[in-house]
Design a protein that fits this description.
The structure is a homodimer of 219-residue chains. Chain A has 219 residues and is of the alpha+beta class. Chain A has helices spanning 4-19, 26-33, 37-49, 65-88, 97-103, 109-118, 165-173, 207-212; strands spanning 53-55, 61-63, 144-145, 154-160, 181-188, 193-198, 201-205, 213-217. Chain A has eight helices and eight strands; from the N terminus they run αααββαααββαβββαβ. Chain A binds chain B through residues 85, 88-91, 99, 102-103, 106-108, 111, 114-115, 118, and chain B through 85, 88-91, 99, 102-103, 106-108, 111, 114-115, 118. Chain A binds a DNA duplex (30 and 30 nucleotides) through α3.
DNA sequence: TATGATTTTTAGATAAGTCTAAATTTATTT
DNA sequence: AAATAAATTTAGACTTATCTAAAAATCATA
């Protein structure tokens, strides 16, 4: 039991379970995968029968350790392929998601481990998301959203919460990249926007942007 | 109409059509794909309905130009991924076939074209097979089987006809690699084996080996 | 807390790709 | 040329993943 489809369900459940406490709802999975609740309901029964999820009708679902470890392996593959696409094939960070969605299903630990070495064992993907290691251990990074940095605070851009094309392209236009240092100059109470100094330039970022930008602050 | 399965059928038909004159038989396809003739029969109807093959019941099949161009694109992807696996990830030439079978179905011309540049536009895969270009043009190489080289003849190893693990590993044990220069010292009429000088060593190769080794001869 | 709204599940269908067994067509051989 | 053998196709069934429509369970609130 490890088809393309099953892998996508596990990945979706893993992703959603990061955002909520308790079980993941059928509807949420359906929306995430782009399918109907009825279809998800069927699939949950199969995943449960295969001990990949804990599932009680009407109660939402969580991954078993087996399911989680499979999900993490897919995420590992996805993120390593993204690094490959950006670092080696010169794709931009907003172009790699769909390709990685395909590549992540290639089934070979040997391949992915060699790819990892070839890429010099990166710890983060092009969007700043951590890459699980071979054992499925995922590095937690001490980072906060830019909304949590107050005036005078200094941070280094470590990642994005929203990795949609639109947001990534917006960051490109503002020439905001991972690793950039920024200083919060002002916070406007009115709309919660922030003026920051970054790359020698001063710019004002809306609350929505600040929410979706992760930074590591000086400790 | 371009599923994983369809792609495999087109590739199989292309491969088989190189070996025979006229149409490819249903049974041959079934054996090549590892399925049953009945299944192939069904699929041929669908491929025909989609104008990917020319098909008349009981008469065998050939690819249309559309089908051939799709087949060549898959072969192009397969061979470029093989180069990647060997050149960049240090796989051995007998280890890459199954992985390339998976990777070849990744659907993106942009990806494969960038991969091609990244690999410095190789013209041949690790087994010496030519890589079709973006337009599906495949370079024919002037090469002959070693069985066609007579005493005193000189050749450079350009490829293998049989790229099975077993044969490739045999070549490894004999330290025979693409590009090696060899001279035919003797041909034994009895069993059609050949003694050759290669890498400073003298060795005798059976007819079966000679049949499956391609060389470019001095012209 | 009852009742309407929402969520989830079940039931029944569909499409793709596969199978076995039987029927049909083509090839071979006496 | 007829009979047998081999190859191919058809018929009917199964599996996986999906859908719509309807039923059932949970929730939210008047």
């Amino acid at each position: 039991m490890a088809s393309f489809t099953v892998e996508n369900y596990l990945k979706a459940i893993y992703g959603l379970s990061q955002k909520v406490t308790g079980g993941v709802s059928t509807n949420a999975i359906a929306e995430s995968i782009g399918t109907k609740a009825a279809t998800v309901s069927d699939m949950l029964k199969k995943l449960s029968a295969n001990k990949l999820i804990n599932y009680k009708k009407y109660q939402g679902t969580t991954l078993t350790s087996k399911g989680r470890s499979m999900a993490l392996n897919i995420i590992r593959k996805h993120r390593l392929w993204e690094v490959f696409l950006v670092e080696k094939l010169d794709f931009k960070w907003d172009e790699v998601h769909d390709l990685a969605e395909e590549l992540e299903h290639i089934d070979s630990d040997e391949l992915i481990n060699r790819l990892e070495s070839f890429l010099n064992n990166p710890k983060f993907d092009p969007h700043g998301d951590p890459i699980p290691d071979r054992a499925g251990v995922i590095q937690r990074r001490e980072q906060v959203a830019l909304t949590d940095v107050s005036v005078g605070g200094v941070g280094y851009v470590t990642g994005v919460k929203d990795s949609s094309r639109e947001f990534l392209q917006f960051l490109d236009t503002q020439e905001i990249e991972l690793g950039n240092k920024l200083v919060v100059i002002e916070v406007y109470e009115y709309d919660k926007s922030r003026t920051v100094k970054l790359n020698g330039k001063t710019m004002t970022l809306s609350q929505q942007v600040c929410k979706n930008l992760f930074v590591r602050t000086e400790t």
